[in-house]
Amino acid sequence: MIVLTGAGVRASGEPVGLGRAVMAALVRLVMPRIMADAEQEVEIIRASVSRADAAAFALRQLTDGAYVHPLPILSP
What we know:
mainly alpha, 3 helices
């Protein structure tokens, strides 16, 4: 599954800089329903990733190399 989120929606563990914080505040102010929907989408996906799936992903990467330079984000 590939999911793209808009500005302001943060993945757990992702650093929050001033620019991102300002963007999130603006989006929340101007488009609160869209922001709430995007945050709910992230929570639904986060809840669907099991520890077994995360472990299988990590083990595959030992031999696959598909994510040697990209930064996949797995949220608990």
